[in-house]
Amino acid sequence: MRYVKRTVMLSEGEVVRLHRPTFGVEGETYGLIARTTQLDARLAPSVFGLGLLEAISDQDILAGADPKDRDGDGISGRAAIVDGAIGRIGWKAGQSRIADQNVKALSLDIGIGNRRHAALWGGCTAAQTKCRDGPHGGSSRHDGLAGVAEDTATARGWRTALLWGIGLTQAVSGHAFYLHDDRARGLTEVVLWHGGEAQPARNRFAALAKRHRDALLVFLTSL
Ligand code: HEM
Q1: CA of 45 to the centre of ligand 1 (A)
Q2: What's the CA dihedral at 216, 163, 82, 111 to 10 degrees?
Q3: What are the boundaries of each domain within the chain?
Q4: Residue 3 and residue 14: Cα distance in Å, rounded?
Q5: Dihedral, CA atoms, 88, 160, 178, 99, nearest 10 degrees?
Q6: Closest ligand 1 atom, CA of 196?
Q7: For a surface tag, which of 18, 26, 160, 165 has the fewest beta carbons within 10 Å of its beta carbon?
Q8: Degrees (nearest 5) of the Cα angle 97, 103, 109?
Q9: Residue 1: CB partners within 8 Å, gap ≥ 6?
Q10: Alpha carbon of 126 to those of 9, 113, 178: distances in Å?
Q11: Contacts of 106 (CB under 8 A, 6+ apart)
């Protein structure tokens, strides 16, 4: 894993050093992986408050969607539709229910088969038994779930993050890293990684007087 670094200057001369992880695989033990395999990191997301997300009605989510940006605020929120239901869970809102996320993650990420999702060992070669027995034997390299390398915070498809409890990340998860691939160390870096439709918000943050920027960060951690 290597980091691509860049420096950003905010108002009043505040300097922030951003770093973005990039990936490669060296010294494969179980044979070479296909050159076309794409790799990307995923931070295990904080899960506090997730039950509340299930409790929001479909109608309320659909009422908040604005895919054609009819209100002209520059932000076109879309509801994710997964098998006819509204996607709510996961970095890309790829599951509509927490239970679905759980059974898939058990099988695909940890390798624990369950009634709804058998563990996918069929593709392993004899040389891979050690890997299969390991605690994370079913990594994405085997099951075809390898992530696609994606860039800015608002590259299409990422679910707009839940900010409730964000200030508890250190206490609950034992770290203060954010965004889908762990690239942001702290909340200032998070905001600076925003792009696309969130670029104007990011630019306003960078231009704020430092005391207002600091006040926004305190507000964020109070949610
Ligand atoms: C100043 C205003 C904003 C603040 C303070 C803010 C704050 C945050 C924070 C703290 C996260 C990280 C959550 C985590 O990793 O657990 C995040 C992620 C995200 N935000 Fe914002 N946000 C702002 C504006 C916006 C806007 C306007 C949009 C959409 C147009 C947006 C879309 C997203 C998305 C899609 C992610 C997830 C991206 C990823 O994981 O790579 N944000 N935001």
Answers
A1: 14
A2: 130
A3: 50-136
A4: 22
A5: 0
A6: 30
A7: 26
A8: 115
A9: 21, 22, 23, 24, 41
A10: 53, 19, 38
A11: 112, 113, 114, 117
Contact in structure between 202 and 78 (CB atoms under 8 Å): no
Residue identifier of the C-alpha nearest atom 38 of ligand 1: 153
Rounded CA-CA distance 127/47 in Å is: 36
> Can you give the pLDDT of all 223 residues of the chain as single tens digits?
899 999 999 999 999 999 999 888 888 888 888 888 888 888 888 888 889 999 999 999 999 999 999 999 999 989 999 989 999 998 889 899 999 999 988 888 887 888 887 766 555 555 556 555 554 433 222 222 222 334 333 345 788 888 999 999 999 989 999 999 989 999 999 999 999 999 999 999 999 999 999 999 999 999 9
Other Cβ atoms within 10 Å of 131 Cβ, number? 18
Q: Which two tokens stand for residue 106?
A: 């058990």
Pick the residue whose CA is nearest to atom 6 on ligand 1. 191
Q: Tokens representing 129? A: 């038994």
Say how many residues make up the chain. 223
- In the reported structure, the alpha carbon of residue 42 is separated from the centroid of ligand 1 by a whole-number distance in angstroms of 16
What is the distance between the alpha carbons of residues 186 and 217, in angstroms, rounded to a whole number?
A: 10
Report whether residue 183 contacts ligand 1, using a CB cutoff of 6 Å: no
Which tokens sit at 17?
Answer: 């050093």
